[in-house]
Amino acid sequence: MDEGLRSELQKQGVFTTTLEDLYNWGRKNSVWPLGFGLACCAIEMIAASMSRWDLARFGAEVFRPSPRQADLMIVAGTVTKKMAPQVVRLYNQMPEPKYVIAMGACAISGGPFKQGYNVLKGIDRFIPVDVHIPGCPPRPEALLHAFMTLQEKIDQQQLTGANRPRHLNADKPSEFPVPEFGEHDLEPPNNRAVWKAPVLKR
Amino acid sequence: MSADNGSYLPVVVLLLAAVGFALAPLALAWLWARKFSPKKPGKDKNATYECGLESKGDAWIQFKSEYYLYAIIFLIFDVETIFLLPFAVAFTGLSAWAFVEMLIFVFMLVAGLLWAWQKGVLTWK
After folding, report:
1. pTM here?
2. Read out DSSP for A142-157?
3. Is residue A101 part of a domain?
4. Fewer CB atoms < 10 Å away: N or C end of chain A?
5. pLDDT band of B5, cuts 50, 70, 90
6. Is the pLDDT of residue A14 over 70?
7. What residues make up the domain containing A113?
8. Is A65 on the interface with B (CB under 8 A)?
9. By the 8 A CB rule, do A126 and A191 touch?
């Protein structure tokens, strides 16, 4: 609907909406996260869901114990190479539409363990991450901000057209390959479809 | 229509409205999914959910039937306690026949206990 016409009607006291807006409005206010903590960031995630920071204000207090009922995966903490296959498999088992928040330095880049041998250098190498939160660990306010960012992102998603999100497009995959914990590293070490190694320019 | 002529029509109408109220959102969701959101089944998505690990074996397994012994022992001691307490409270005011009845009941439970004892259930291995 034309924005000018809408605001003109609104001035006359006529409020209009579209199916797309209604759909996104409902979705963004009932995002159910997966109850899934990997390290110390999970403590901040739990704090954010409790009464002081009160994630329930955003309709997201129902942490689901099963991926079948969850819309959002908050990767809260260090993803070790041994844990990465399980994280990807849980992501695959969530129904569409699904979103990922990578919480904390470890989840977005490996954090203080980046130079080590056993920590994944960012979960975005395997699954598409919607919002990254830096911090070690990020405060609950940062998680709330990430949540509001995700809500804005959901609100902008189109129902039809070429730019429609993955879950509305039959050609886009809903599952991503689960890496194997190999002898030296994860095999494959990253998912080319969602992450490309940065090119160094010397 | 007056309410006192014994007609159940209002109840039927209300019932239909209730069923429609329950089914309409489900039907709308189904239609929405058919129109907009394509089904995307997959190997991992259809697999048995087990904390992200690959599940080994079948989820439809039998549990041991031996657990009925625990149920029987629980029943013996639980039911006995429930009836012994009021029996003890009302003991002085009971007739002789009521006392015999209670003894019969307790001995029935004791027979069950003896049976379990003979099966070796009470021995901790």
Report:
1. 0.76
2. HHHHHHHHHHHHHHH-
3. yes
4. C
5. low
6. yes
7. 16-153+178-187
8. no
9. yes
